[in-house]
Amino acid sequence: MPSRTLDHDPPGSASGPVPAPTRSAAPRRPGSGASRRLPYLLVLPTVLLLLAALGYPVGWQLVTSLRRFGLAQQFGAPPQWVGLDNYAALVSDPTLWGVVVRSVLFCVVTALVTVAVGGAVAVLMNALDRWTRLALQVALLLAWAMPIVAAMTVWIWIVDWRRGLLNWALVHLGVDSAAGHNWLAEPLSFFVVASVVVVWMSVPFVALSIYAGLTQVGQEVIEAAMLDGASGVQRLRYIYAPLVAPVLSIVMLLQLIWDLRVFTQIKLLQDAGSVANETNLLGTYVYQLGTGKGDFGTASAVSVLILLITVALSWYYVRSLMAQES
């Protein structure tokens, strides 16, 4: 039977070519642009507050470091613009570089010792029973909350060369040469005492921070490692240390910043019987230039130098934190 071709459209269909369907535009969500801007609007007041609270002092220091600003300017005389003369004088001053070397060494050594001791205390707290750990935490908080001047009064009495507890204990232990020994007279023993004081005041913060990180390690991970035969040292090295590495980086960064600009402990120990010119760190050196000699222009230049050293010392840790975030 011959086949028949249909030369007409099926019933109910329109004659002619069927137009291609057009893609309708996606409906625009109302308020999408405003919702994207909302986080920035919420952060804006905080950014403005930070710029006002931190930007103005830093800007004032930068401008003052380019001027001659002394006692005359404090009584109304206009400051004289000297450009980079203050910085040139600092570069050629051997006293400043001695202070910088002492400050950086003191900062690095003290920060390392603080993190090491604080980490050991945190591991100890993690291994103690509940009530012993609570008593240790209360003791750390009390030591941390003690005002610096009050704590320094006790420490100065301990190392006092006439009636100090340290010399008395050493004499009773058979060290007769300790009688009347002035621990603050020599720069080396001065910085040993200062390091002990700074570490003692900083360990509570570091210990509690690292302990908080240790508590976030899952117990099932530790139990699995124990079933595999991992010793305590191996668990500490291969499980705890990598998991609390971000906390260690943060506390190390903070300690470097704090110990570089330490002032109160050094100044009070100097007033207790030390030669300031031989035991100055950057904080006390700025105080000596500004308040002592009235040279606020040079003191501001040293403050800018402290800022640059702080950025240089903390740059590695900041990069590490940014890498961990990404």
How does this model look, in words?
The longest helix is centred in the middle third of the chain and has 34 residues, at 94-127. By secondary structure, the chain is an all-alpha fold. The N and C termini lie far apart (75 Å). It has a single domain, classed as Orthogonal Bundle (MetI-like fold), CATH 1.10.3720. Mean pLDDT is 82; it is low at 1-8 and 10-15. A two-stranded antiparallel sheet has the order 1-2. Helix 1 (32-64) runs antiparallel to helix 15 and helix 5 crosses helix 8 (187-214). It has 15 helices and 2 strands. Helix content is 71%, strand content 1%.
What is the compact description of this entry?
The chain is mainly α.
Q: How does the SSE layout of this entry go?
A:
Layout: H1 32-64, E1 67-68, H2 71-74, E2 80-81, H3 85-91, H4 94-127, H5 130-145, H6 148-158, H7 165-172, H8 187-214, H9 219-227, H10 232-243, H11 245-260, H12 264-271, H13 276-279, H14 282-292, H15 296-325
Antiparallel strand pairs: 1-2
Helix pairs in contact: 1-15, 3-15, 4-5, 4-8, 4-11, 5-8, 6-12, 8-11, 11-15, 14-15
Instruction: Please name the CATH architecture.
Output: Orthogonal Bundle
Beta fraction: under 5%
Alpha carbon gap, first and last residue = 75 Å
Strands in their spatial order, largest beta sheet: 1-2
Overall geometric form: flat
Number of strands: 2
How many distinct folded domains?
A: 1
Percent of residues in helices: over 70%
Subcellular location: Cell membrane
Domain ABC transmembrane type-1: 100-317
Membrane topology: Multi-pass membrane protein
Transmembrane segments: 38-58, 103-127, 134-158, 190-217, 238-258, 296-318
